[in-house]
Amino acid sequence: MATKSGDLDVRRLVEELNYKQKVERSLDLLRDAWARYGDGLVVANSLGKDSLVVWDLAKRVSAKIRGFVVTTRYKPAGTVAFMNDLVARYPETRVFRNDVELPDELYRTDPDRCCNLLKVEPVRRAIEEMNVTCWVTGLRCTEGRTRTEYLEVEERDVGLVKLNPILLWYEREVWQYLALRGVSVNPLYSAGYRSLGCAPCTNISQGADERSGRWIGTSKCGGECGIHTRPLKDATPGEAVELLRSDR
Fold first, then answer.
1. How many domains does the chain have?
2. Across all residues in the chain, what is the average pLDDT?
3. Is residue 20 part of a domain?
4. What predicted TM-score, i.e. pTM, was given to this entire model?
5. Which residues form the catalytic set?
6. Distance CA 115, CA 121 (A)
7. Alpha carbon 247 to chain centroid distance?
C-alpha cells in the first residue's frame, strides 16, 4: 500500500480539506486497506475520542473488522468501565495488558520504562497473536508537538503497515464527527480532559497542545508512551522482563 501523502502534503491537506472531504478520505483509506489486508487489518483502540472516530469509520467499512485495546493497572475507573461496555458491544475487540511486577511508582521514577512495559509490550503481543499486517490508529498530526511528522500510511516495521486514517483532522472535527454520528465517548471528557491515559500521568491540559497534560513533571511531558515510536515486531521474547530486571 503506497504512502498516501508526503510531509508537505500533510500540512497542506490539513488546511485545505473541509470536514466532509476529510471523512471521505478517511473512509477511502480504510476501504483500500480492508480490500488489501482483510482480516490482517486491526484497529488499535485507546478508548479516546480519536480511536472512537476510527472505530466508527472502520465499522462503516466492514462489521468484520477487529480491534484491540491495551489497558494497564493504572487506568481510571471510568475508562475501565467504558472499556468493558465497548468490549461487551463489540466482542471482536480483544483486551491486552501486562501484569508483570513493577517497582513502586515506576511511572514517576522512569515513565519511559513503565510505558514500555505496560503499553508497548502488550501492543507487540496483540500484533503477534492477532496476526496483524496493518494496524489502524487514531493518531492526528494536529494533536501535539510529537505528532507532526507522521504520514497517513507508513511501514515503520518491516511487514507491518500502520494506517493513520484521521491524521489530517482537527480536534474540533473529531468532536463534530462524534456528535453527528451519536458515538458514545469516555466519561472522563466531561471532566475537562482532552487527552486520556493512565491516572497518575494524566492531567487536564491548560495549553493549546492537547497532550500537554500528559506526564507533567517528567522528562516526557506532553510526549509519547512509545507505541508510535518503538519497534513493534522486532522485540525479542522476554524483552519486557529483561528491561525490568535491568533496573533492579
1. 1
2. 87
3. yes
4. 0.87
5. 225
6. 9
7. 27
